[in-house]
Amino acid sequence: MRHPMKGAAPEMKVAPEPAVPQTAVPEAGKHRDIIDGARRVFFDKGFDGASMDEIARASQVSKATIYVYFSSKEELFQALVETDRRKSAERLFEFDPDDKDVESLLKRIGMTFMTMMVQPDHIRLIRMVIGAAEKFPAVGRTFFETGPCHGGRRLAELLGRQTELGHLKVDDREMAAFQFFNLCQGNLVKGLMFGTGQQPSPDEIAKTVDGAVRVFLAAYGISRN
Predict the structure, then answer these.
(1) pLDDT tens column, 92-127
(2) Average per-residue pLDDT in the chain?
(3) Is 167 helix (H, G, I), strand (E, B) or coil?
(4) Pick from 8, 140, 144, 165: most CB atoms within 10 A?
């Protein structure tokens, strides 16, 4: 058996390579901070009144940092719209598509949808998008695609599944989906949009949604008699 020689240099241990810094998390956090700051400024000042300097202060970052993520105020506003619409869609479609009680399912979707639609911040966002869309059509397209169109497609998938299960009879599913959302709005959202209506109570929303579900099921429901 060999023994190490006296006076021999101790065996060198290789130090582990330093961990690669996880930049994705801080970058994601910074992106979120900018979006949150922009939301506060846009809702307070409006699209035209908001400046990148104010957004930088609200986000607690430098203006140069904002331009690392967004090339312009329009691109930042477009990202804000996309983020908010995606979050709203996630809340709206938390349900079991195989639920046998289609009436209750539609009522839950309608109530979630309308509770979101009448929120003051949502009304302000719609107004800002409409105001900006003429000059910056991409902003309007983003809102339309990630909001109404995405919601309509998701609901159309549900209506298709409920048709497969024999609870509904829907041929043109996207058309039926948009009909349902429009029925749920009644005149509540338009009143808020034009400043002629007061914030509806939960009972008023429920009454409008219940009526929408009755009309929708009268058109697309399957009689069990």
Answers:
(1) 877 788 889 999 999 999 999 999 999 999 999 999
(2) 86
(3) coil
(4) 140
